[in-house]
Design a protein that fits this description.
Blueprint: H1 15-19, E1 34-35, E2 48-55, E3 65-73, E4 84-89, H2 97-107, H3 110-113, E5 116-121, H4 153-174, H5 184-198, E6 203-208, H6 210-221, E7 226-232, H7 242-262, H8 264-279, E8 282-283, E9 289-290, H9 294-302, H10 309-324, H11 327-348, H12 355-363, H13 371-384, H14 387-394, E10 417-428, H15 438-445, E11 446-454, H16 468-480, E12 488-490
Length: 495
């Protein structure tokens, strides 16, 4: 049953406490806006751009600075309709906001665009924000995991930690000025500086995926300045645990199972491919090897978007031909897959700055597990799931190896943080990137709050899953500040 705007009437009583009595208006910084160029935002003529200087270390305001790249699209409504600025972060960690801002603007319902400016920024270490990170070569992981046969997880974990640790240590040396200053706490302080610079009395915020971690950090640091806060496809709140690591490791496979339920014929083909590459990997013309690691990596990566389900069907057809076919059909499938992997590599290439994601992740973690810490759980995951998910877990023991900087974890209060205005947390039960169980956990961490849970695998929910049951209460919340009267569960749009 779809929730309508009318069904939210009982929540309007919250409006008075939500939208009245804001904190005193901060004095805005003088920002010089200009029409964005194509080098700044891929939609010239429709966005304004500026830069904002912020302390590199929030605890040392007189020291070096970052120059944040900032962009906005002004509201298309009448001046009297404007509710303020809606600050947007697309996730990552390590993703530039300005790259995604035009897409986010077009996604928003017209009634939201009539009421809000949409503002985003390139977080430190990303996009056009300076100083820019120096590129670093990645770790050489070739041969660390066997293509076939049993896996010695102790040896794999040790090898990963050694190779990644060596690469991270060298990278930190080359980026000594900025590496220790990329945490979510610093990003939250930047967001507060941006709110003040724009003269906004409260922070209205829409964060997706890792962007919810920035939102959580902001809410904990500046609870009295929270306006509407939409946390979409949330990260886990608080500290990393081995259970959290397991949940990360299995999320992609859980999302794939949603696809499999609706596409049983493709799933049968896919299972045949997995059984085949378990013992006999296939090599593409460009040297890419279709093995038990790469095949599920590709398919589960795509499974986090329902719009990509037709693409997944096509790719599984190609994989089946490339691995189990014969003659010209197999040759053509392998050639086409080689082109696909080359395109993906080019699209995902960040010019050697992939280390920024690792640094942010590790700054945010108070605990950094060793391979020995994860060894029992890795073996258990392999037994329950497969070697693929087990490797995803063991990888987490290597990602922080070699970093010398001290963690700067988001504070984790024993009780939930009370925010000035209520928070809405939304996500998918079988999200392929962030575990669905983190939806109620994030809501419990911030109060007052409500949840909207979609029974599917979609990552990035609002205005992306095409569900009135999701979109209508979210839009109502953005326009009124009123939460749904209760937590909502929305059926899959796939039937």
């Amino acid at each position: 049953m779809h929730t309508t705007f009318a069904s939210l009437a009982t929540g309007i009583a919250l409006l008075a406490s939500t939208l009245t009595g804001p904190p005193a208006l901060a004095q805005p910084t003088s920002l010089e806006w200009h029409e964005c160029t194509t080098a700044e935002v891929d939609a010239p003529g429709t966005f304004d751009c500026t830069r904002l200087e912020v302390p590199m270390d929030r605890r040392a305001p007189g020291g070096p600075t970052f120059s944040l790249a900032v962009a906005r699209h002004r509201t298309i409504g009448r001046p009297e309709q404007r509710l303020g600025a809606l600050f947007y972060n697309p996730g990552g960690p390590g993703e530039a906001g300005l790259d995604v801002l035009p897409f986010a603007w077009e996604m928003l319902p017209r009634e939201v665009r009539e009421r809000y400016d949409l503002v985003s920024w390139d977080p430190r270490g990303t996009g056009s924000t300076t100083p820019a990170p120096a590129p670093c070569p990645g770790a050489d992981l070739v041969g660390l995991v066997p293509e076939t046969g049993p896996v010695d997880w102790a040896a794999v974990g040790s090898g990963l930690a050694t190779e990644v640790g060596t690469a991270n240590a060298a990278c930190e040396e080359d980026n000594a000025d900025i590496a220790a200053h990329l945490s979510s706490n610093e990003a939250a302080a930047d967001l507060e500086a941006l709110r003040v610079a724009l003269g906004e009395p409260v922070l209205n915020y829409w964060g997706v995926s890792y962007g919810t971690r920035i939102g959580e950090a902001y809410a904990r640091a500046f609870p009295d300045h929270v306006g509407v806060m939409l946390l979409d496809s949330p990260m886990y709140p608080g500290a990393w645990t081995i259970d959290v690591g397991v949940q990360f490791a299995i999320a992609g496979t859980q999302a794939y199972r949603v696809f499999a339920k609706h596409h049983p014929a493709s799933n049968r083909q896919y299972q045949q491919v997995l059984r085949a590459v378990e013992t006999a990997p296939a090599t593409l013309p460009n040297g890419v090897v279709l093995d038990r690691w790469l095949v599920p990596d590709l398919v589960t990566f795509l499974s986090a978007s329902e719009d990509l389900y037709p693409t997944i069907e096509e790719i599984i057809d190609l994989l089946h031909l490339a691995v189990l076919g014969t003659g010209p059909g197999r040759t053509d499938a392998r050639s086409r897959l080689a082109g696909l992997f080359s395109m993906l590599a080019s699209t995902l290439d960040r010019g050697g700055t992939e280390w920024v994601s690792s640094a942010i992740w590790c700054l945010d973690q108070a605990e950094r597990p060793s391979p020995a810490d994860l060894l029992p759980s890795t073996r258990a995951v392999e037994e329950t799931w497969s070697s693929y998910e087990a490797l995803s877990l063991m990888d987490q023991a290597a990602v922080c190896a070699g970093w010398a900087f001290a963690p700067d974890p988001v504070p984790s209060a024993d009780a939930s943080t009370g925010t000035r205005s209520p928070v809405l947390v939304i996500g998918s039960r079988w999200d392929g990137r962030t575990f669905g169980g983190w939806i109620p956990q994030m809501a419990d961490a911030l109060s007052p709050s409500r949840t909207v849970t979609y029974v599917g695998g979609q990552h990035g929910l609002y205005a992306a899953v095409h569900s009135p049951c999701v979109d209508e209460p979210v839009t109502a919340y953005l326009l009124t500040g009123a939460l749904p009267p209760k937590d909502l569960t929305c059926p899959s749009e796939l039937g």
